[in-house]
Amino acid sequence: MCKKTKVVFFLFVVLLLSSCNQSGESFVITSTNQDENQPEESIDNATILSENKAKVLKVNTNLEVKHGWHIVPNTDSTLILSAEVENVDTVLFWIAETGTGTWGERTLIGYDIDGRDGWSIEWDFGDRIFHDHIVFQALGSDGSTQAMESINVHSDVETDEE
Known about the structure:
This protein is of the alpha+beta class. Helix content is about 15%, strand content about 45%. It is built from two helices and eleven strands; from the N terminus they run αββαβββββββββ. The strands form three sheets. It has a six-stranded mixed beta sheet, with no helix packed on it. The N and C termini lie far apart (about 100 Å).
């Protein structure tokens, strides 16, 4: 009899621990001053996480756009890049060549860790000739989410056609 009691107790503890350890369940917020006729508010964990994840709302440059490409005039040597973001601690600004599988060859051109004055950088690129992607990578303030947006950048280079 003692052995059966131990087995039943063990199974009860396992059942209790497994029910407490399930993730993805919704939970109910209750308040001690809640009106009895007011329904309790149910919130799904996924909803809470999606509300706090990093978001890139808009990206901007000081360049003119033609046919989906941001055109860098041959008279300029500085780019101003900015992003409107939500739930972000850091914005990284990358440049990557166009083509397949070039993300691994990207170069960090700047970052912003203080969004009080906007999320932006001014990049002095010198005499670089562009046919690249500039990627705005927002790192979430939740420590786990990120969001990215990219633009195409091309130099306004005159060709020697005769």
